[in-house]
Amino acid sequence: MRADRTTFHDSVLAVLVAAVSVVLFLGRDGGRLEPPGLFAGRAPDAVGVTLVLLMCVPVAVRRRWPLAGLCASLVSATLLSALGYGVGLAGVAVVVLLYAVASYRGLAAALGGLLLSLVVYGVGAAAGPLTTTRWSDHVAVLVVLVAVWGGGRSLRLRRAYLEELRDRAARLERARAADTRAARAEERTRIARELHDVVAHHVSVMTVQAAAARKVLATDPESASEALSAIESTGRTAMAEMRDIVGVLRADARAELTPQPGLRDLPALVEQMREAGLSTTLSVEGAARRVPAGVDLAAYRLVQEGLTNSLRHAGAGARSEVTVRHGRDELEVRVEDDGLGAAASPRRPGHGLVGIRERVALYGGILTIGPKAGGGFKVRARFPLKDGQ
After folding, report:
1. What are the φ/ψ torsions at residue 123 (nearest 5 degrees)?
2. Strand 330-337, strand 319-326: pairing
3. Quick check: is 232 in a domain?
4. Which positions ≥6 away from 54 have C-beta within 8 Å?
5. Is residue 257 part of a domain?
6. CATH number for position 306
7. 374/371 Cα distance (integer angstroms)
8. Of 91, 118, 133, at which residue does a domain stop?
9. Where does the chain cross the membrane (predicted)?
10. In-domain check, residue 255
11. What is the residue range of 42's domain?
12. For the chain, where are the E strands, in sequence order?
């Protein structure tokens, strides 16, 4: 559609240039319609009109074949000069085509078109009726040709610059879209890990407590009531954490965003596991110091997943021990139990341990998961800490 419009516009321009050139060519009388001595020649006739038309017609294809059109127009101009007619206003066609060559073709073609125009004009000026023209007129024509060529080159360079800007903007937009997709995928993975950690831990605790309440419901209603209260409290905690996560996912500014859990919350987590029936102890070695927020959360989730794993698989009467050791350049976290072990109760790594592995790897840590030599199961992670952390 755009090509059709440009062809139509060029055709209209060619018709206008040809009509004005023919009218002035037919209406001149001994050169009185032209500057003294400039392009004046023999009286107009059919041959002269035909050459003027052939000189102007290539303007219609100035964008599609500018160099070929310029050559064709220069041939007609040469014949007009050689036969003594004079070029007259039809020379505008040469100017238009030279501008088109400079603005729509490469530097080599543009220089070739300029050189060809100057040579043809020089030959015509030396051999034709232009010998009577003043030198100032020749200089003015040469200046016009060079200025028109320079204007065409400037337009081409500006067009190339704008095209480069558009390409760069498109590349930046594609890169931004790719970064956005990667960030969304990473955020979805992070939220999936958070939801799994919250749901798996609290649901496991609630399941164990519900089973204990069912067993003692008839014989010890007071203990069953305490277990049901613990289930209610655990459920409320799970709902609060899930509400916070979903609130972030929905970008709800009204959501109550509590701080992410960390090592400071381990005593409460251990107490919760005791209430669920898993004998758990917590040991902290070394001088506690502030660790990065991401490592803090990863360590807490590792302990949470390890204790949940022990609660589900270690068996009745098992004991679990959580150890946090603050080293000079690393943080070590261990969760060990003396339960049934991998032989009696196979523990297939689920999404929780996979998520823990991703968390530890994200911060350059080393994770060890597997059965203990003397029975039981262990989860151990070492997080490197930089100086000043």
Report:
1. -65, -45
2. antiparallel
3. no
4. 72, 73, 76
5. no
6. 3.30.565.10
7. 9
8. 133
9. 6-27, 39-61, 67-100, 107-127, 139-156
10. no
11. 2-133
12. 279-285, 319-326, 330-337, 366-371, 377-384
User: How would DSSP label each residue in 67-83?
Assistant: HHHHHHHHHHHHHHHHT
Contact (Cβ atoms closer than 8 angstroms) between residue 140 and residue 38? no
Instruction: Indicate if the alpha-carbon torsion angle 174, 180, 186, 191 is positive or negative.
Output: negative
Within 57-134, residue ranges assigned H as helices are: 66-82, 91-104, 107-127
Tell me which residue has tokens 């800007």: 165
Residue 103 lies in a domain: yes
Is 321 in a helix, a strand, or coil? strand
Residues with Cβ < 8 Å from 182, sequence gap 6 or more? none
- Side-by-side strand order, sheet with 330-337: 279-285, 319-326, 330-337, 377-384, 366-371
Can you tell me whether residue 383 is helix, strand or coil?
A: strand
Over residues 34-66, the pLDDT tens digits come to 443 344 456 777 888 888 888 888 888 888 888
Question: What Rg do the C-alpha atoms of the chain give, in angstroms?
Answer: 44
Place of tokens 């959501």: 255
pLDDT digits (tens, 9 = 90+) for 170-185: 888 888 888 878 877 7
